[in-house]
Each structure stands twice: as C-alpha cells, then as structure tokens.
Amino acid sequence: MRECANRxxxxxxxxxxxxxxxxxxxxAAVFALFALLAAAVVAVRRxxxxxxxxxxxxxVSAEDNTTVDAHGAVRSTQAADLTLPDAELEKLWSPPQxxxxxxxxxxxxxxxxxxxxxxxxxxTQRTVVxxxxxxxxxxxxxxxxxxxxxxxxxxxxxxxxxxVARAGRHGDGYxxxxxxxxxxxxxxxxxxxxxxxxxxxxxxxxxxxxxxxHVYRWTQSAIHVLVTHGFLRSLARLDLAESRVGRYAVPxxxxxVPDPGEPADSPxxxx
Length: 271
Fold this sequence. Notes:
Layout: H1 2-47, E1 56-59, E2 66-68, E3 74-85, H2 86-92, H3 95-112, E4 117-121, E5 125-130, E6 136-141, E7 144-147, E8 151-160, E9 174-184, E10 191-203, H4 206-210, H5 213-234
Antiparallel strand pairs: 1-3, 2-3, 3-10, 4-5, 5-6, 6-8, 7-8, 8-9, 9-10
Helix pairs in contact: 1-5, 3-5
C-alpha cells in the first residue's frame, strides 16, 4: 500500500513539474512577444516607407479583424487591394510565383522581427522558431497549393508549437494566403487589381488559454496584425523571394495545380 502511494506521489509530482514547465514556457513566450512587438513596430515602419514602387497596396480590412469563439478558437483576417500593371500581373500568375509569394511571407516575418523569429524548412514542415530550435513557436505542415485562372491559395495547416494550446494541436487550424483577380482598375487604363487576404482560422492560442484573452490580444495578436499589414503593403514592390524548397521550380501551368475548393488529396497533383 505504501509503495502504491509513493508511486502515485511520484506520478503527481511529475505531472505538476510538466505543467509548471509548460506555464513557464508560455510566460517566457509572452515576454518575448512583448519585445518583438516593439521591434516589429520599428522594423515594419522602416520597411514599408513610401517609395516609388511598381504597384500600389491599400489595406482594406479593419484595424483588428480578429474574433475568438466560445471555445477559444481564433479567426483573424487581414486584406489588401494591390493595383499593378497588366503585364506584371500576367508574369505573376503562375504556380512558381504563388510559391514565391508564400516564401515572401516568411521572409517578411523574419525581417520584421529583426531575425529574432525565423522559419526552418523541411519537405514536410515549416517551423517558426524563436532564434533557433528547440524554441518552436509554431509548427505547420508543408503548404498546400490551389490555383486557377482567377484565384490562388497557399495553406499551411497548424500542427503544434509553444504558442498553440493543447486543444488546437494536430487539428483543423490553418494559416492561408488567398489571392483573387478583380479585373481592371477603375479609371486606370493598363492597370489591374487583385485582392489578397491573410487568414488564420481555428487557431487555439496557448497565451489566451493559459493566461488570458486580453494578454493574447496585446501580444501575439497585435504582432500578427502589425506584421501582416506590413507584409501586404510591401507587396507593392513586386519583389517575391525565391522559394527555399522549389516545389514548382520547373515552370508549370495553372491547370497542373488543384483548383481552389478541391480536396487537398486531389489526384490532380500529389502533395
């Protein structure tokens, strides 16, 4: 009986130690995110300063278009309209350029946080780390691509990470870039308009679950909105980063990529 009680005591102590370690990690992440917010404000403002860029970007979403449902799942959408020359749009509308757009998002995130946050790449995952492994803030599956003549989508499904609560690990949460052609720009011959959205859906933030929703809004959510707006504005440069993986390194037609709305396991193209 005494041996059984001792065993239960050791198990309980191990559980408490693990929980304490998780909470300490979350608190550390909060303070790190506060520091990143200050750095990002300076970096983003510097990088999106007005210049003579080949296109124009205008933020069209609300300043903080973020909602949290009754179960604690977050949905956040930031959007912009990009006006650019006809010829530039035609050059950009291809699977390799969609892949480069995805890489540009991660490049901007790292630059805007002064390299404190960076992304590690593999064939099957994208891992957002604080400085370096094993400080994994977010881990995603490899991106899914969908494209047709009017719309292009890149979607990363959320796996886990320090910033993901237990309820949201290996679930149906995702980060997504969604680009739509809107036709000729009003009153501007030779110019086209596209609409770009950055969406996070079904995301369960550990900060909101472990500490409070208010702290989440002041830290991680605020940083996400700030950096995403900076990313959308920076697209007016039309300077897309080279892909690290090169899934579409060989030029392919839009028809070779699953259409938006097709299942991720569509036989059109294996993942």
